[in-house]
Specification:
Order of helices and strands: EEEEEHEHHEHEEEHHEHEHHHEH
Number of strands: 13
Structural class: alpha/beta
Radius of gyration: 19 Å
Number of domains: 2
Strand order of the largest sheet: 10-9-8-11-13-12
Distance between the termini: 13 Å
Strand content: 15-25%
Shape: globular
CATH architecture of the largest domain: 2-Layer Sandwich
Largest sheet: 6 strands, mixed
């Protein structure tokens, strides 16, 4: 069976196509559109223009699947539709226009599915999962590869950029405001965080951070781990980037040149709060968890 999973996110809309056999899913290919739906939120509502962008992208993915001769297509939405006041209206309009049902998952469910896709059965047996998206950030504490606790922060790399940044990169006051917002939500969800040595990072910002760090620090291009010190050093380099750093950003993460610094502030603030030693990026995440839980019936993908 061939199955397509569409992740309707706040920053990107991704299609991942899997070949599913004997309870396992193998990624065949994926596509990504930087739709930036968080930037279409006006007075708490996803605007008509934002809904149209979502519909257009879904129609393109649906046509792609049809041209390949596959019909099994699932769509889920995270903070892009969960954190707006017109969720039901937006879902109804999208479904009417595209014929695709949209499953809007809660922050708690997103955290669980991200853990299932990125950590369950692989990686360190204990640590902190950080799923940093465009509109939300999920944190999952786990031990023995079982969830101890989880929370969803209503902030992400794109929503923070849209709310606090006036130009391409945040100024010093804007960086302080972003960090204060992250700390406020962290304290609300976990007032007295205990130290955690290792973290698993999920999402495009974490992957982009590793790519940029690999170039900036002369590391192996396949390296997927950042120490907390490297993360903080990278953020300092990008606070007021010179021409060389801008060129490096354009090489490593051109589609995240405006959201990378807000995202790094989130990662750095979380790293400080939990006294993290390092962050290892997972190539899997919420889409693999969704495939495993909702398509394969809980069997390991």
């Amino acid at each position: 069976m061939i199955c397509g999973i569409i992740d309707l996110g706040s920053n990107t809309i991704r299609l991942s196509i899997y070949q599913c056999e004997n309870g396992r899913g193998k990624l065949l290919t994926n596509r990504k559109v930087m739709a930036g739906l968080a930037g279409y939120v006006v007075d708490g509502e996803l605007s008509r223009a934002g809904i149209q962008v979502a519909c257009q992208t879904l129609e393109e993915y649906k046509a792609l699947m049809g041209n390949l001769g596959f019909e099994n297509l699932r769509v889920f939405a995270t903070a892009s539709l969960r954190n707006v006041s017109n969720t039901a209206e937006a879902v109804s309009q999208i479904q009417a226009a595209t014929g695709l049902e949209v499953d809007v998952i809660s922050g708690t469910e997103e955290a669980r599915l991200s853990f299932l896709g990125a950590v369950h059965g692989q990686g360190p047996e204990e640590g902190l999962l950080i799923d940093l998206g465009g509109g939300s950030t999920e944190l999952v504490k786990y031990q023995g590869r079982e969830i101890l606790s989880s929370c969803s922060l209503s902030l992400g790399s794109l929503s923070l950029y849209s709310r606090f940044v006036s130009r391409l990169h945040p100024t010093k006051p804007e960086r302080k405001a972003i960090r204060a917002q992250v700390r406020e939500q962290l304290e609300r969800h976990d007032p007295t965080p205990a130290p955690i040595a290792h973290a698993c990072g999920v999402g495009g910002t974490a992957r982009a951070a590793c790519k940029v760090a690999n170039l900036a620090f002369g590391r192996n291009q396949d390296c997927l781990t950042l120490t907390a010190k490297e993360l903080h050093k990278l953020l300092k380099l990008l606070r007021d980037p010179d021409r060389q750093m801008l060129n490096l950003l354009l090489k490593a993460a051109p589609d995240r040149i405006h959201t990378l610094v807000p995202g790094l502030i989130v990662l750095d603030t979380v790293a400080q709060a939990y006294a993290l030693e390092d962050l290892t990026v997972s190539r899997c995440g919420v889409r693999e968890g969704y495939l495993q839980d909702r398509v394969l019936g809980g069997e390991r993908p």
